[in-house]
Amino acid sequence: MTSDFSRLVAATPGLPCRPDPALFHSDYPPDRRRAQGLCAGCPLLAACEAYAVASGQVWGVWGGRDFTAVVTYCGTERGHQIHVRNGEAACGPCREVHARRLERARRAQLAIEHAKGGTVRGYDIHLRLEEVACGLCKAASREKSRQRREQARRGLQRPRTASPASGSTATLPGAQAGVHGLAAAS
User: Which residues fall within 8 angstroms of residue 36, CB to CB, at 6 or more apart?
Assistant: First the structure.
């Protein structure tokens, strides 16, 4: 693969990495971001990235992708963000760190919801944590559901009245909730 890629590079005129190859392997992140921008118009973009992945490159910009940033930050939340920004699946260590951070944040929010005496939001957090909700949060969720059912029931049974413009306030027979009736004729 190395010799095939080398021949392809040698045979392709005007590659953006030829004038200043050091820019693509700089220690300075803004240089590498500039190099990524230069890669955008390169005819060997996909082949270059494929070569870097296949050959295990861990430094520099290859095919518009900054391999340095991923290797430098892998196993951190920043590494997870870089994987996502590059449109790739996060590596195992980055996924684990991200999952632990999410769980810590959810547990902190759950403590806040429990301090309020249990809430619907707390119930939802229990579900996201894939655990059985506590009694307080279950009760809050049941109460919210009961209130919604009650509001819906009242909304459907509420009688409609005539338009204020008609001067009549009589209830119109057969009027449905949410539908404007015509004014009753006097």
Answer: 61, 64, 65, 66
Tell me which H or E stretch contains 50: helix 45-55
For residue 164, name the pLDDT band (cuts at 50, 70, 90). Answer: low
Amino acid, single-letter form, for residue 135: G
Would you call 169 exposed, middle or buried from its count of C-beta atoms within 10 A (0-12, 13-18, 19+)? exposed
More confident residue, 112 or 2: 112
pLDDT at 125 over 90: yes
d(CA 14, CA 140): 66
Q: How far apart are CA 179 and CA 160, in angstroms?
A: 8
Angle at which helix 92-115 crosses helix 120-128, to 10 degrees, equals 160
The pLDDT of 168-178, averaged and rounded, is 53
Q: Which residues contact 119 (CB under 8 A, 6 or more apart)?
A: 113, 137, 140
Which ranges of 86-177 does DSSP label H, i.e. alpha helix?
92-115, 120-128, 135-157
- Other beta carbons within 10 angstroms of residue 166's beta carbon come to 14
Cα–Cα nearest to 180, from 164, 160, 165 = 160
Residue with more model confidence, 176 or 76: 76
